[in-house]
Every structure is written in structure tokens, then in C-alpha cells.
Amino acid sequence: MGIILDKLALLFLCVICFSFYDSSVISVSCLLLLLIVSSIAEVLRGWRFSWVFPLAYACGCIFLPELACGAPLILYDCLRMKKWWAALPMCATVFRLESFSAIQLLIILAGLFIAAVFYIRVYKLEEQIGSLRSMRDEVTEKNLELDGRNRELADAQDNEVRIATLRERNRIAREIHDNVGHMLTRSLLQSGALIVINKDENMKEPLEELRSTLDSAMTSIRQSVHDLHDDSLDLKMIIEDTASAADDRFTVSLDYDIGSDAPAKVKLCIAGIVKEGVSNAIKHSSGDRLDISVREHPAFYQLLIMDNGSSDKINETGIGLKNMKDRAEGVGGFISFTPSEEGFRVFASIPKNKENV
Fold first, then answer.
1. What is the DSSP letter of 181?
2. What's the number of CA atoms in the CB half-sphere (13 Å) around residue 302?
3. 348 phi and psi, to 5 degrees?
4. SS3 at position 340
5. Does residue 340 register a pLDDT over 80?
6. What whole-number distance in Å separates Cα of residue 263 and Cα of residue 233?
7. Is 115 helix (H, G, I), strand (E, B) or coil?
8. What angle do CA 199, 200, 203 make, to 5 degrees?
9. How is residue 311 annotated by DSSP?
10. Which member of 131, 186, 281, 310 has the greatest number of CB atoms within 10 A?
11. Are 287 and 250 in contact (CB under 8 A)?
């Protein structure tokens, strides 16, 4: 808005300067040309060659000195476009001063001075705006960086809590297995022995009920221990720990996308194949990159282990590869080994079915 007011003020001075000519045709024609050139310069200001129009107007002053009455507005446009030299041809009118009256010369000089003052004010304002934008961008960048660090800290804390929870579940499962489980097993054996040596028919039924109760308790405890152990299996952490063993030789890339509700059998199968695959890569691969991809699809789980070491033959009778194959087949899955000059590839696919639950 300030620039429009500046241009209107300069245009008013130019109109006054043009009004001193006796010929209204010259005044109106020059004024219209000035308006057209200034408007085009404003509309095309971002264009690379927008300065051509003010330069053409300035060159026209050499042949038609009356055009110099619009010099203040043309100079202002040139200064805003950072092309001040485009207004220099208007200086040729100093050799045609007889075309202007003293008042016109005074108005033109005053207008040029005002145009320079207006530009300096606008230039300082643009500098301040640019500085404020830089500060805003810097603050925004710092805030984004801070948010990223806060998220990382929150994720780290959540991970620590999750790891602590899993460790506590494992500890509880071990305590139940080692203490309660063993005591129930001993009680079952003792009740069985009592049933064998018992001669009193009246005690036979109570002893059978006692044994049945202990057996039910043992089954419940065993199921609880298995559930705690299955829930405490963190497949991603297991794979990351396994992959970290190859960091000294390989640049390891892990692409993990499996939900936490994956069956324990599937987790154990994938973990075992990854451990064997990484171990084989460390022992036999000549490459320096190891890619591990574990993904969950609507109907199956997919595992891909690939290194860039040269390998054009394979011995599928090896113990390691046979173990991986047995693990995959144990959950109804399929596994393939593909050697090539570009590297060695292990691909496994495990279907989602009730047997894996």
C-alpha cells in the first residue's frame, strides 16, 4: 500500500509538470505513455527483463524531451528494480533545457529527490522485513529441531519403559517357572505316589480330586508363563541386537514393519533366521552392505536378508541353511536362497494361519 501511495504522489508531480505545456495532445500522450510504462514495470517487476520498458521510456526522452516530465516516476521504478542505470538516458535532456520552463525544471528536480527518498525508505523497510523473515525462519527451524529432539527423548523414554516392562515380564515368568512350577510339579508327583500307595477306598476319590486340581493349576501356570514369555518377545530389538554384531564389517539397513501382535512362533522363527543369516554373512560374505527387511502383509509375513558380497554358488546341505529351512517349514512357511554375483539373498514367506497362533 505504501508503494502505491508513493507512486501516486510522484505521478501527481508529473501531472503538474505536464500541465505546463500548451499542447494538450503532447501532455496527455506523454502522461498516458508514462502510466502504461510504469504499470507494465509494476506488473512485470519479477520478470528478468522488466527493466526494458523504463529504459525505452528513458531513451525516448532523447528524442522527445517532454517525456522527461515523468522522470521522477521512471526513476522510482528503476530504483525498485535495482536497475538505476536504466534511467540514465534521461540525463541527455540537460542539452535540451530550452524545452522546459524554470518551474518544470524545479518540479522535475524535486520529484527526482523525492523518488530517491521514497526508495531509500522502501529499501530500509524491505531490509527490515527480510531480517524479520530470516529471524522467523530461524526460530521456526529451531522449534522444529527442538520438537524433533523432544520426540527423540520421548521415544527413548518410551523405549526404556518398554524394555524395562519386558524384562520384568521375563523375570516374573522365570520366577513362576522356577518356583511355583517346580512346587506344583513336586505336588503332582507326591499326589500320584499317594494314590498308588493308598489302601483306603474312602481316600481314593479325594486324592484323585486333589491331583486333578493340581494338574489344572499346573496347566494354568504353564499357560500364564508362556503368555508372559510370548508378550516379552521384542522382535525388533532382537533383530537390532543381531544386526549390531555385523556393524564392524557391514553398513546395516533395517526396514521393520510388523505389528506387536505377531504370534510368538512367527517371531521366534524370524529371529532365528535373521541370526543365522547375519552369522552366515559375517562368515562367508565379501561385501560391505547388509539389508534386512521384515514386513507384515494382509495374508503373510515377509523376510528378506541380502548382502552385496559376490557369490555364485550355494551348498543347501549346510547346517545353517538347513536350520533356516526347518524353521520356516515349522511354521508353514517357505524360504529360498539366491546366490549371484551381486550378492546373496535369503527370502522367507510365512503365512498367517491358526497354526502359528
1. I
2. 9
3. -130, 145
4. strand
5. no
6. 10
7. helix
8. 120
9. B
10. 281
11. yes
In sign, the C-alpha dihedral spanning 107, 109, 112, 117 is negative
pLDDT higher than 60, residue 227: no
Give bridge partners of residue 347 from the DSSP assignment: 304, 336
Ramachandran angles phi, psi of 143, nearest 5° = -65, -40
3-state secondary structure of 123: helix
CA-to-CA distance for 155 and 102, rounded, in angstroms? 78
Contacts of 59 (CB under 8 A, 6+ apart): 89
Residue with cell 500307595: 197
- DSSP label at 294? E
Q: How far apart are CA 278 and CA 308, in angstroms?
A: 13
Dihedral sign, Cα of residue 310, residue 315, residue 316, residue 319 = negative
Q: What is the pLDDT of residue 1?
A: 62
CA dihedral 254, 260, 264, 266 (to 10 degrees): -50
The helix or strand, by DSSP H or E, that contains position 295, with its residue range, turns out to be strand 289-296
Q: Which pLDDT belongs to residue 259?
A: 76
What cell does 283 get?
A: 562368515
Sheet holding 334-340, edge to edge: 251-257, 289-296, 300-307, 343-351, 334-340
Any residues with CB less than 8 A from the CB of 213 and at least 6 apart, and which?
none
Asked if residue 117 lies in contact with residue 104, where contact means CB atoms within 8 angstroms, the answer is no
Q: Which long-range contacts (CB under 8 A, 24 or more apart) does 324-330 make?
A: 324/272, 324/273, 324/276, 324/277, 324/348, 327/269, 327/272, 327/273, 328/269, 328/273, 330/265, 330/269
342: number of CA atoms within 13 Å, CB side? Answer: 3
Paired residues of 292 in beta bridges: 254, 305
Beta bridge partners of residue 246, listed in sequence order: none
Burial class of residue 16, CB neighbours in 10 A (0-12, 13-18, 19+): middle
Of the candidates 282, 295, 287, the one whose C-alpha atom is nearest the C-alpha of residue 255 is 295
User: Within 10 Å of residue 261's Cβ, how many Cβ atoms?
Assistant: 7
Q: Give 70's pLDDT tier (boundaries 50, 70, 90).
A: confident
Distances (CA, A) of 356 to 258, 264, 265, 329: 15, 8, 6, 11
Residues 65 and 18 sit within 8 Å (Cβ to Cβ): no
Minimal CA–CA distance to 7: which of 38, 30, 48? 38
Bridge partners (DSSP) listed for residue 93: none
